[in-house]
Amino acid sequence: MCGRFSVNRAISPIVSELFNTHFNAVTNTNLSPSQSVATLVNSNSTYHQVNALWGIKPSWSKKLIINAQAETVASKPTFRQAFQHQRCLIPCNGWFEWRTEEGKKVKYLFEHTDKVPLYMAGILFQHEFTELVTLTTKPNIKCGQYHKRMPVLITNEDKDFWFNSSYQEVEPLLQHVNDEMIHVEPTD
Question: Taking the model in full, what pTM does it have?
Fold first, then answer.
């Protein structure tokens, strides 16, 4: 997954109703690493919004880390604690990938087929600021035509399970979603 996604404040009432909380996203149709992201967390069976900066920079890393691979997130020392105890969801309209076609880079938007919000899986880190890493997985067939990774997407039906289950139990959620759930189109 590349480092761009889209959030439109129009999703705020939909997310607020689904999670029974006040969610207020700021429109950013080109959200990039190091920018603030509205996320959802669950504590004591109550959802609430936490704003986080996208990316972490551990002392051993020369660059900002924005994604963690779902296949290793539970075992890598950098991510293990956050995955066990600080999972979040990132409501968004979709994400972007670029593909070279006829010598030109073409930008594609990946969104829900029904144009409803997507919920990317993430983990939070409490440093000087709250920071965020999104989770990626092997792509479904449709998304694999554009990139070798895609975000881990949590469905509405699985949101409570994502937050209320042990890290071992959520492993089945770390797979790609069905092709039919994702609509892909070129964008400017």
Answer: 0.96
